[in-house]
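Case study 2.
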Amino acid sequence: MSCDIKMSRRMKYFLQKWLPYSDVIELKGIEEMVEIYYNSGQFTHVVEALVKNYASAYQMYQDLWQYYEEHDYMGIQHRRSARYEIVLDFVKEKYPEQADVMRELLTYDYYLRENAKSRPNLQAKMQQTSGLSEHFMKKRKKNESICRDMNSLIEIRCAR
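Prediction:
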């Protein structure tokens, strides 16, 4: 595993006596995922949607950490935009049927966090079909209400 921990003698003794080193490595990896995807506040809507696929948030972060390990992403300083791409790739691999929704949530989270002037490139542009546009127009009143709610949320978040 690529995660390296410098420990005091007391900590090494504790690990040998009660907790295997591999468990500590896993906990450190999960802690890193929580720090990146929850504590940073950059992925609020994506995390909220993604955690619904798991029995607990812990399992989601554990799965995400394993994905990082499998793809050798741990220990690398990623650009902020790369984190969005990584979580989208994770969703595409684990839950491909949710990829489009998660891409939109990632875009929404991106706009809430960044002062973006253009749409982020999350490896694939949303493909607009006439059926989707037609569906949107049929439910225009409901969608206008949702858009107003989203704009209010954006204004509140930007005011912070």
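The CA atoms of residues 136 and 143 lie 7 Å apart.
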